[in-house]
Write a structure and sequence with these properties.
The protein has helices at 7-18, 25-28, 38-50, 53-64, 71-92, 99-116, 121-134, 139-142, 146-167, 179-192, 204-224, 232-235, 238-251, 260-292, 305-311, 329-332. The protein has a domain at 99-293 and 315-337. The chain has 339 residues and is mostly helical.
Length: 339
């Protein structure tokens, strides 16, 4: 409880009540050396009550005047909490790739496209014709760069295969596409489509997520049939086709409901591209596996008997689905460099 009669408080009250008419020493009369003001007496009474051990007892006094905690102990929990929050925020923030890392990721994918032959001129032209046909035009009218469009779609398709192999097709496990990667993808795609990237207000993030997510979703459907069905009427659902094409157009700044027939042609063009790439990657992987297998034919006379049983019956493994064609580097590729 605060003390009454503090000097500043008394002066304020005196000034407000008396103004400039302060009493003189003569008017006040002689003061006794034992005289004590009423405020001081009241303050002393309060202090005596607060310190009255007979009134409150030892336990009561301990409760009324607890020992102060050291300042360092009081700060420790708060400092620990702030440190934990800072660590959590730092962990939640994804690593933003540098321009050098983005370029390295693009070069890695370009190398894979060449390695597996995923953008041969004939395949690139076929995809460009089907892609333009979905929009009611052709490569000449649209000014499409056939090789560039085929390249960017081949790299994206290969990325989708890597993501599918790494996540089992669970889109919720697919990492967020860094803004730099999305912008690089949007730039290359528009250039391939014959559009100056500077002339359009494009949502690069939505464009990248839609294209990559649509391909992973297609792989999920393809895998649900055991990787053996190529009938597009089974693999491409009309509502899914409308959903992905509508988001694709929205990313390009075009709003509105899309036509189902157009959406299916667009989805089929992308699906055929995926099927071509799946076939080529599977073929190369099968050839590599065959080369790694011990050759048993024509060597039986040279192979000791004790080793023949181990070689006998050795075959190239059969892939149950497109997810089985991946191993090693393809699965371990960095998720932040998918586009």
């Amino acid at each position: 409880m605060p003390k009454l009669g503090e000097e500043a408080f008394q002066n304020d009250i005196a000034d407000s009540l008396l103004g400039d008419q302060q009493p003189t020493q003569a008017e006040e009369g002689p003061q006794s050396e034992y005289a004590v003001s009423g405020d001081d007496l009241l303050n002393e009474a309060i202090e005596e009550q607060e310190a009255n051990t007979f009134r409150y007892g030892d336990e009561g006094m301990t409760h009324r005047r607890p020992e102060p905690q050291p300042e360092t102990e009081a700060r420790q929990p708060q400092e620990r909490l702030r440190s934990e929050r800072a660590n959590e925020e730092q962990q939640e923030q994804p690593h933003a790739p540098t321009p050098e890392e983005v370029q390295a990721g693009v070069e890695r994918l370009e190398s894979s496209v060449k390695e597996y032959g995923l953008n041969e001129p004939a395949d690139a032209r076929t995809f460009a014709d089907e892609f333009c046909g979905a929009f009611g035009t052709d490569v000449y009218k649209a000014g499409v760069d056939v090789g560039a469009l085929g390249s960017v779609m081949a790299k994206t398709a290969y990325s989708a295969l890597e993501i599918f192999a790494a996540t089992g097709g669970d889109l919720s496990k697919m990492s967020e596409i860094p803004a730099q990667n999305a912008q690089a993808f949007a730039h290359d795609l528009l250039k391939g489509m014959g559009v100056d990237p500077r002339s359009m207000n494009v949502d690069a993030s939505l464009l990248a997520r839609t294209t990559l997510g649509g391909m992973v979703n297609f792989l999920n459907t393809y895998n649900s049939y055991g990787g053996k069905v190529t009938d597009l009427a089974k693999l491409n659902d009309p509502q899914q086709a409308e959903f992905y094409m509508q988001n694709f157009m929205k990313a390009l700044g075009i709003e509105g409901q899309v036509n189902r027939e157009t959406a299916l042609k667009f989805a089929d063009a992308c699906a055929k591209q995926m099927l071509r790439i799946i076939g080529k990657v599977s073929q190369v992987q099968a050839q590599r596996n065959e080369q790694r297998q011990p050759r048993s034919r024509g060597q039986r006379g040279r192979v000791p008997q004790q080793f023949r049983d181990g070689i006998k019956g050795s075959r190239v493994p059969k892939f149950r689905s497109n997810a089985d064609i991946f191993s090693g580097d393809a699965v371990e590729a960095a998720m932040s460099q998918k586009l």
